[in-house]
Amino acid sequence: MRELVHIQAGQCGNQIGAKFWEVISDEHGIDPTGTYHGDSDLQLERINVYFNEATGGRYVPRAILMDLEPGTMDSVRAGPFGQLFRPDNFVFGQTGAGNNWAKGHYTEGAELIDSVLDVVRKEAEGGRVTIKKKRKKTKKSVILHVLMLFLCFLFYFRIFVLFSYFLCYFRDFLFYFRRLLFYFRDTIENNRKFKETKRNNIIKTEMKGNH
């Protein structure tokens, strides 16, 4: 009885999933090519919970691997058990989200939803799957792209406005700071002149007293 369909999403999910299938395959006596080389009948018990049996007695993981960029998929394929997975169950985009949640949720990720659901449905039914490389952009997708661009524009416009305010306040700060420096300079200069004048008056008074 088939019970589990594993869905591995993103770089972290696929790295954990790849290690998981290494452990499960070792427990059931499955080598990296999907061939059984175990030494106990217990290893074959309920093996169909995790694997489908393909032609030639080869066992294939019941797993869907998905990501928004092909790099993670290439790493899984190049791994020790990379040839174990069914090629049709790799679902991926081409550009990635670049750690941008909105892009992953509304644009690149949204374009893969139909393909992922189709693969999950076919895998649950036990049938083979043909993956569409990439959907054509629908009207909804175009609207989401425009909305995302508009939100990005608002974000950068707000930053520009805040930076403009900062420049204005900084300019005013420099202006008043300069006036303060001039005030201190004039105060020091006037104080010096006052002391010099007072000293000259004292000298003149002493000279008159001597005469």
UniProtKB/TrEMBL annotation:
A single Gene Ontology CC annotation of this entry is: microtubule
Q: Does the keyword Cytoplasm apply?
A: no
Molecular function GO labels: GTP binding; GTPase activity; metal ion binding; structural constituent of cytoskeleton
A single GO BP term for this record reads:
microtubule-based process
Q: Which UniProt keywords apply?
A: GTP-binding, Membrane, Metal-binding, Microtubule, Nucleotide-binding, Transmembrane, Transmembrane helix
**What residues does the Tubulin/FtsZ GTPase domain cover?**
47-209
Task: Show the InterPro entries listed in the entry.
Answer: Beta-tubulin_BS, Beta_tubulin, Tubulin, Tubulin/FtsZ_GTPase_sf, Tubulin_FtsZ_GTPase
**One Pfam annotation, family name?**
Tubulin
Highest taxon above the source species? Eukaryota
Question: Where does the chain cross the membrane?
Answer: 142-167
Which family does this protein fall into?
Belongs to the tubulin family.
From the Swiss-Prot or TrEMBL record, give the protein name.
Answer: Tubulin beta chain
Q: Which organism is it from?
A: Polarella glacialis (Dinoflagellate)
What lineage does the source organism belong to? Eukaryota, Sar, Alveolata, Dinophyceae, Suessiales
